[in-house]
Amino acid sequence: MDEFDEIRSCLVEMKDLSALMIDLAFSSVMYNSDEIAEEVYLLEERMDDLTLKVKKLALRAAKKEEDPESLLSIMDMADINERISDAAYGIADIILRDIEPHPIIREIMEDTEEELGRVIVHKGSILHGKTLKQLKLPSKIGTRILAIKRGSRYIYNPGKDDEIHEGDVLIAVGSDLDKLRKLAGEEVEKEE
Asked: What average pLDDT score do residues 122-143 get?
């Protein structure tokens, strides 16, 4: 893989990552979730790594280019994605620093009918070993999987052929994530 293929791959991941981070950051505030806010922190570290990698690759590629200044737009794009992730990090930081968001912030965010959250696939889950196509989660339970975290690796915008495994962390959005939690083998607290 040459520098430009690697740069392209990194920039695509950065674009997906920054969009996911914004969704997670706002959700962490909306649901006052330390768990979701901490996920944003972890993603910020990945974004830092990608930004540095893109810049190094662009500098290496510049040595071979007739017009090395043309690569400035690549570095600019990396910086812009980094700034987006920094903003998401700042939003999530509100929760992790135990700052109580003003009621108007929660009021604005509660206008959405969808919930975004993390769901861990436990041992014995019926999700294990099945592809997203087989599960048909959007039509069956009204939930979309935005990303799958497998160990330290993320699968962004997973496709219909991506499989779910035990231990995966699903970043999902839907009107009732408790249904997904039940399928994943998580205990769901009943409202009284």
From this structure: 95
